[in-house]
Amino acid sequence: HTSSAHSKVRAIPSASPALLCLLVERDHALGHQEPHWKEFRFDLTQIPDGEAVTAAEFRIYKVPSIHLLNRTLHVSMFQVVQEQSNRESDLFFLDLQTLRAGDEGWLVLDVTAASDRWLLKRHKDLGLRLYVETEDGEAGGSVG
Prior knowledge:
- The chain is mainly beta.
- The protein has one domain (about 5-135): Jelly Rolls, CATH 2.60.120.970.
- It has 1 helix and 8 strands.
- The protein has one helix at about 110-120; strands at about 5-10, 20-25, 35-40, 55-60, 70-80, 90-100, 105-110, 130-135.
- A 4-stranded mixed sheet has the order 1-2-4-7, covered by helices on one side. It has a 4-stranded antiparallel sheet with strand order 3-8-5-6, with helices on one face.
- Strand 5 (about 70-80) and strand 6 form a beta hairpin.
- The chain is globular and about 45 Å long.
- Its main location: secreted.
- It is found in: Secreted.
- Keywords: Disulfide bond, Glycoprotein, Growth factor, Secreted.
- It comes from Chlorocebus sabaeus (Green monkey).
């Protein structure tokens, strides 16, 4: 959970297969960092030991970008698997969405693999990293 993004974790009752939805509202800081990524952390302690997550989604609302209107954006999600003091953190690719900067609506990224790892090794939750880039690799600005 970050201080600049409001997030909710919702679990379906235990009678149903476990489904975890991560809903993140607009984060004004995204796109104003170098490099062009934002990290998110979530508290999964409400999921009992021994429970399996059958699906986990990261949802973020995309508002249209006027200054990049006709550009293509690549929004990718990675799990941080190991932080390094002398180089970039080790990342595991989770999902990628390609869209137009002028598009508006919910982006849904599959993070099931990350939630599975977190439940197996609860002390190893190093978060998710969301990247936004244009087709030529430049920072894409705010996605939502």
